[in-house]
Amino acid sequence: MKKFIILAVAALALAGLAGWYWKAHGRGAEPEGLTLQGNVDIREVNLGFRVGGKIAEVDRDEGDAVRAGEVVARLDGEPYRREAEEGRAQAASLRARLQLLEAGNRPQEIAQARAVVREREVTCANAQRVFKRQEELFASKTVSVQERDDAEASYREAEARHKSASEQLALLEAGFRAEEIAQAKADLGRAEAALASAELRLADTVLVAPSDGVVITRAQEPGAIVQAGSTVLTVSLTRPVWVRAYIAESSLGRIYPGMKVRVYTDSRPDKPYFGQVGYISPRAEFTPKNVETPELRTSLVYRLRVVVTNSDEGLRQGMPVTVSWPKPSSI
Question: Phi and psi (nearest 5°) for 275?
């Protein structure tokens, strides 16, 4: 019994020791006393029109806040509106032609062709009777050869005209060929694609902010002629705000993505920002000159990105900050 108690106590002691070691040295432990220097890294975007033209208005100035989807500038859209109108008219014309081909000929046209066929059929039958009489009279030598030949010619002509009218009726009743309809569809598709491109160019005369931010540069003024892609406004994005920092290889194992940190600035050392490690570079590099820790200048370091979760206007592009990992109880 005493031996069993001793073994149980020993097992509990080993379990406690293992738990302490995992807490102190395991991956989930927060490192204490680790402080890094870094700089605020705020993304900027150069806003420009996808088409060229004359600037009609610029609605924002330097320092103005913008919201995602807000209109910040416009081009004179009249040339593009006319291009779109022309495209719509062309597409409408080809659409009507396609509908005509698919519908076939009008019933009135077919009825008219049938009437012509009947008329020429009667004419042909009469010419045939005249020709037969002339042949009978010619056999009895009552009419001349010329008269018989004229009657035959009239009959053959009437017969040919009747055949021509019948063929025309057959064409009208059959409608248009499948190849003609396919070509009309292709022409309409090409016109609709050109119209879509024209409408897209018209829409591109309106410049909108892609996300929330602050205008830091107004590069163009109303009346200026700009090329496609020329910068009109430069916007500093409100989100996301990152801190770019570097960590030595010897401390690399003490951090991991998702680890919570605090970010301090010189202007408010008693009110830290909160964030978490979002990215750790897999590649080592030489310490940049702007890293302010002298002992790291000759070392290989790894770049990491800290995403600030409660950023405000107090964080500016390039501002030096301190990133620290306090005790777990103080986070």
Answer: -160, -170
